[in-house]
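step 3/5: co-fold with iron/sulfur cluster
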Amino acid sequence: MLKTIREVLRTGNATVQYPFAPVKRPEYARGKPDHDSEKCLACSACAVACPPNSIQTVVDITAGKTTWSINYGRCIYCGRCQEVCPTGAIKLSPEFELAVMNKSDLEETCVYSLASCSECGEFFAPAKAVDYAARILSRSRGDDEHMRRAIELISVCMNCKQKHDAYRYWEKSKQAGELLC
Ligand code: SF4
Ligand code: SF4
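step 4/5: write tokens
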């Protein structure tokens, strides 16, 4: 018995007092992803990359809205969302104490507007993502024909783009004398 007590005194405290005292985390510890709704473009890259579907986006074409949501209860702190986000709108924080009394308190949602097509008026993509792409393209404006067309068609929906492409193909074929009409 005396030997055991001596050994305990020699060893000291081998455990930490958490949760009664703060726990020291390593610098690289991963915690809850923080989402900045201002920086977010609603592009859905994080939703596509998220392995457990903790992040989801639901598009309502009729209402012209897209809803971005995160469920922290499903998050595995893998950091894929942070890696793929083009604007740094989502970043892992050191926070790991996420206990709540109500499961719904682990969910957050943000609603964003969709842009409407400049030709047919249909809603087609998150307005912030369209603006972001337009800003990037305008910075790289050059003589390249593909770049010029991309800038022209940035506010056009996929269906109208296909019509543009079909018309262009028809015109080129006509000029080359491949069409009879
Ligand atoms: S850290 Fe991983 S699991 Fe959590 S929201 Fe980001 S991608 Fe999803
Ligand atoms: S990847 Fe970034 S910008 Fe895109 S929806 Fe996720 S948080 Fe928002």
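step 5/5: annotate
Strands lie at 33-35, 55-60, 65-71, 90-92, 107-116, 123-126.
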